[in-house]
Each structure stands twice: as C-alpha cells, then as structure tokens.
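Translate structure to sequence.
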C-alpha cells in the first residue's frame, strides 16, 4: 500500500511539474523558439483575454449542464455548428500539404486501382502503411454510396474518426462522472485543431481514434466484473494494437496500461501480474508479426531503411532546438552527406549524439530540454499553424481563416482552450496532492500516457508542435477534474464574489486596451504568397522528350493568380508556354517564376523539345487525380507536369477588421455567459 501511495504522489508531482511548465510557456512565452509563427497569433494579452472569456463561458455553461434544458440547447447549437462546419469543409476544401500527406495520397491512388507496389517512401516510413490501408478501405466504401472524389472521401473519413474519438472519450467520462463528461465535450468543441488536422492525411487522427477506443474499452473493463471485464480488457488491448500499428509512439499507451493494471486495487498481486502478462502477450503476439510483415512488403532495399536513431540525433541538435531544420541548418543534410548506406548513417548518428551531449554538458542539456518544451508544447494550435495546401485544384477563401494569413481568431481560440486544459490539469494535481487523493484507474492510465509522451519527446526524440496532437483528448479528459473542482468551490467567502462580473469586465477591457495597442503598433505590411492551384510535387522522375515533340496538359484555373512556376531541369533546351483562354501565349521556361495576369479559365500548358537531342523533363505519376490534380498529360497515361499558380499580394500582418469582428465575438460569448 505504501508503494502505491508513493507512486501516486510521484506521478502527481511529475504531472504538476509538466502542466506547470506547459502552462507557463503557453501563457507567457508561446512560440518564443519559433518567432516566425507569431504572425498567425494575436498578442499575449489578447490570448489571455480569450482564455478568461472562454473559461467563464465554459464554467457557466458546464455547471449543471445535463440538468438544464436551456444549456443543453446551447450545447447542441455549438455542436451543430461544428458538424456543419466539418461537412462544408469536407465537400469544398480538399488538398494536400506535401511530404507524408501527398505521399500517402499517391499510394492510396495506386491501391484504389489495385496496384499493390509500394512507393519508396514506405521504405522510409513503413509505420504509415496501416493508416494508408485503412484509408483506402474507407474510400472504397465511400465509392459504393456515390462519393467518387478521393479528396472529399478522405476529409469525411478523418472528420468521422475525429468525432468518434471525441465520442469515445465522452462516453468513457460519462460512465465515471457526468459532470466530467460535460466539461469534456465543451473543451473538445472549442479546441479547433482537433478538426482542422483532419484536412491533412496522416496517421494522427487514425491513431487517436484507436487510442480513444481503447480508453472507452478500459473504462468499461474497470466497471465490469468476471468474464465481461476480461472481454473489455481484450478489446482494450486490440485497440492499442491498432493504435500502435498506426503510430508507433502509441506503444507508450501500452506501457501506461500495463502499469495501471499492476496498480489495480480490486485484484490480488498474482491476478494483476497475470493480467499484465496476458496483455503483453496478446499485444506483441499481434503487433510484432504484423509489423514485420509490413516491413517485408514495403521495404525494397536495406539502405532505403530509415535509421530511427536519426530522431534522437535531431532531439540533441542544439542548433535547431531539437527540430529537423532551423535557420537554414538541415539535420538530414548533415546525416546524408557522405553517408550512403544505412550502417554508415547509424554509425555517424551514434558518434554525433555522444559528441553533442558531451559538448552541451549537464546544464546545456537541461537548457536544450527547456527549448524543446517551448517548441512542442507552447502553441495550442498543435501544428495546424504550419498547415497549408500546396497541391489543390481550387483555393477556397475559408482556408485563409483556418490556417492562412487570417487565422489569428481561430488560433487564439485554440490557444485559449489549450491553456484552459493545462490549467485544469495543474489545479487537479494541486488539489489531489493537498487532499492525498488516489488516482482513479482512468486518471492513472491517462496521466501515465501523457507523462510518457512528454518525457519521450523532451528527453529523447525530435519535437514539433504537431506531436502534441496525439495527447489532446487525454489531456482534456484529465483537465475536466480541475474544472469540476473549481466549479464546485464555494466562492461565497471571497470578496470578489460580490463584484465578480465588474472585475471580469474591468480586467477584460484592460487586456483589450493593451492588446489593441500592441497589435496596431507592430501591424506592418507584408508580402503574402498563396498557392491557388498546385501540383509541383518534388518526388519527380524523368520523361524522355524526343526532339520536336510536345507535352500538353489541360489546366482548369478556378482562382485569379499572378505568378506561375513550372519545374524544369534545363530551361534553355526546351520551350514551355501557357495558352490562355483568349489564345494568347505566355512563355514560362525562361525563368522560374513568371508574373502575369491569370484569370480563371481553361489553359493549356505546353512543353516542347526545341533541341536536336532527347531532353529529360521532370514529371510525376499518379493513377488517380486524388481530387487535387489536373488532367493528365495528353496521350501519356497517369503522368503530370509539376507546376504551381500563386497569388502574391501585399497585406497587413493582422487585419484590423477581422480583429474587431473577433473582439465582438468574444464580447458576445461573455454576454451569453452572463445571461445563462
């Protein structure tokens, strides 16, 4: 019993320290190590203002939510708007970002046409294979009900998984405590990165779905007995297998589960050990052979295998703050230069990591860890601030407000919700330590998982804001206890009780004045480049273009553009031009970026070999247009020219009009909170 009490205390202290560090970074130092991202955020005072307003609204709406018809109606309106938003984005806004996203989409296209040869990308990232196969299965299912656009199907798939993951968490907390479930659904509804991430095809939403399925199954297990409980434990294990096959970081969730089982109080030590061993046997009995089979299928050459120790090498790169690239320093270039085979790369990485740690010394290592914490955990957008579509058929203006140059309101709400979440965890830890409260099994499971992910990335691995996505729902679950404790606290003895609303409005106006002054003072004009149509994928191959032969591709431009870029390897040996809808030609081979007025309409892109020798022209191949590509090259099946249309314009870093609308929305939320 003493061991359990000590372990409980140590875990609470660890989670307290972690939540304290993250709260401090996200409140006062968001994005300090990545200052180029701050243009997409409002000043810190406005972030804090949004946090205060949203916190007050969530407390007012969340209190006795399940008992109030009026409050439930407001919640259903919020959720209805969220659902309509997802449906609208699914049908209108689809594209691909780049590495990983486009790679997986191209493989999806091949599998949809029953071509089971895996691209070299999967030798580098075999862990993405299961997510690709699951995506293909859904797209085939969608085609049976008439959804033929792959872009739409992918969006619907990822949004559905996100919603189901949230639902699993809600149902799990509902079994434990209805009040916790109420605060959870409110936080999840306002945490917009959960949904925006679904526009990019990657493993995270899929892994999150299986993780939250395992959480729900685990809660059912803890509330059942006999053979039924073991059935739910088996379901928990299978869910974690699928989660780890989708994203190997989820192996940390397995460790968290096993430790939680070992600390169970309702079973004897022998039974606990037996359960834990059974979970490990079942998990690795499925995971290991499946993982090995996948690697045998997708890895074609040994030297194409990606050395996993590279991520540790990045993690101790002080010059890049534990990231792949920063300030022109590319960690991959350092590894790849002069090291051809995988063994050479591994040897270089081993020696370099030792050298880096030695040069840093103990104090330097701790400073690096603190920088890494700021990189990964200070921005509540969890990576969506980096998102953009580089491959798409049409640019929708709503993208400006989601992750474009006008996304400050969305990002500020995300930052506020993120901060509320970590403050909730901080409060919960403080109260539980003071009152010596023992963690419930679900809290213990989620705490171990969150602590594990935090330590893994901070101490060993690469860091990126998007790596925090996979703990988003578990952290929201943990935060609900802190919110409940605050909501149930008796404020009647405090002096602020009588003038609470006046104080709240006064603080809000002060923060608004400070933030507005900061915004207007530093709101400079900048040049913004937006890809409105693109398919310039960098994984290209050579097309042998004979003398005098032309390649033609029909292009349907749906937005205005003023810049065109065509990838060519030898601009002086070939001619390339765009035939406009009015018949005029624009030469595009003489320089990389061609400036002209390009109105919406049908264009023909022509590349002609004007030399006397065969010329190599860059192209890329896809068996499907994936909802993002143009028509294939005339008479050349499944082959596309790499090019981009962009609109370059001069804009304010932060739109004053959008800022004023955002402030009015915050005022409306605060007013609604006063009325309910």
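Result:
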């Amino acid at each position: 019993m003493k061991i359990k009490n000590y372990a409980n205390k140590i875990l609470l202290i660890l989670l307290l320290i972690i939540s304290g560090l993250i709260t401090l970074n996200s409140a006062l130092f968001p994005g300090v190590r990545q200052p180029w991202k701050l243009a997409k955020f409002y000043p810190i005072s406005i972030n804090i203002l949004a946090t205060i307003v949203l916190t007050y609204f969530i407390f007012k709406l969340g209190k006795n939510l399940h008992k109030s018809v009026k409050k439930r109606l407001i919640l259903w309106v919020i959720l209805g708007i969220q659902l309509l938003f997802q449906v609208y984005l699914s049908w209108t806004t689809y594209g691909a970002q780049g590495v990983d996203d486009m790679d997986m989409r191209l493989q999806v296209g091949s599998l949809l046409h029953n071509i089971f040869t895996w691209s070299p990308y999967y030798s580098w990232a075999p862990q993405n294979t299961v997510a690709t196969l699951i995506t293909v299965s859904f797209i085939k299912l969608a085609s049976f009900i008439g959804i033929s656009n792959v872009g739409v199907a992918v969006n619907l798939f990822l949004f559905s998984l996100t919603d189901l993951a949230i639902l699993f968490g809600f149902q799990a907390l509902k079994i434990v405590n209805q009040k916790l479930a109420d605060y959870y659904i409110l936080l999840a509804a306002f945490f917009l990165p959960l949904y925006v991430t679904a526009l990019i095809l990657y493993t995270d939403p899929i892994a999150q779905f299986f993780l939250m399925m395992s959480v729900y199954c685990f809660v059912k297990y803890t509330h059942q007995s006999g053979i039924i409980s073991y059935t739910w434990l088996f379901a928990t294990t299978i869910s974690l297998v699928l989660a780890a096959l989708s994203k190997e970081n989820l192996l940390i969730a397995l460790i968290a589960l096993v430790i939680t089982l070992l600390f169970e109080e309702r079973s004897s030590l022998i039974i606990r050990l037996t359960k834990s061993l059974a979970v490990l046997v079942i998990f690795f009995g499925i995971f290991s052979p499946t993982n090995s089979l996948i690697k045998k299928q997708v890895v074609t050459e040994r030297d194409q295998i990606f050395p996993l120790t590279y991520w540790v090498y990045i993690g101790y790169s002080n010059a890049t703050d534990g990231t792949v690239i920063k300030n022109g320093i590319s960690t991959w270039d350092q590894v790849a230069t002069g090291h051809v085979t995988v063994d050479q790369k591994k040897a270089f990485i081993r020696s370099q990591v030792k050298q880096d740690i030695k040069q840093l010394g103990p104090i330097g290592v701790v400073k690096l860890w603190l920088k890494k914490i700021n990189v990964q955990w200070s921005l509540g957008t969890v990576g969506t601030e980096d998102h953009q579509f580089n491959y798409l058929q049409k640019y929708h203006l709503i993208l400006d407000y989601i992750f474009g140059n006008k996304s400050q309101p969305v990002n500020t709400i995300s930052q506020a919700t993120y901060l509320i979440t970590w403050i909730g965890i901080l409060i919960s830890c403080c109260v539980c330590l003071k009152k010596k409260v023992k963690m419930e099994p679900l809290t213990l499971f989620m705490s171990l998982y969150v602590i594990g992910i935090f330590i893994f990335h901070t101490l060993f691995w690469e860091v990126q804001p998007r790596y925090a996505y996979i703990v988003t729902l578990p952290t929201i679950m943990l935060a609900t206890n802190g919110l409940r404790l605050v909501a149930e606290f008796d404020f009647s003895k405090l002096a602020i009780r009588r003038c609470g609303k006046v104080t709240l409005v006064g603080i809000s106006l002060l923060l608004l004045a400070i933030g507005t002054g900061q915004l207007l003072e530093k709101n400079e004009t900048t040049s913004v480049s937006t890809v409105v149509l693109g398919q310039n994928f960098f994984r290209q191959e050579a097309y042998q273009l004979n003398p005098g032969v032309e390649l033609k591709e029909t292009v349907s431009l749906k937005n205005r553009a003023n810049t065109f870029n065509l990838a060519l390897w030898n601009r002086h040996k070939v001619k390339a031009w765009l035939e406009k809808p009015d018949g005029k030609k624009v030469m595009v081979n003489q320089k990389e970026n061609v400036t002209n007025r390009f109105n919406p309409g049908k264009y023909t892109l022509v590349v002609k070999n004007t030399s006397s020798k065969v010329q190599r022209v860059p192209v890329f191949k896809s068996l499907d247009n994936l909802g993002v590509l143009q028509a294939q090259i005339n008479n050349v099946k499944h082959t596309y020219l790499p090019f981009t249309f962009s609109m370059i314009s001069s804009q304010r870093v932060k739109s004053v009009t959008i800022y004023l609308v955002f402030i009015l929305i915050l005022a409306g939320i605060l007013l609604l909170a006063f009325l309910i």
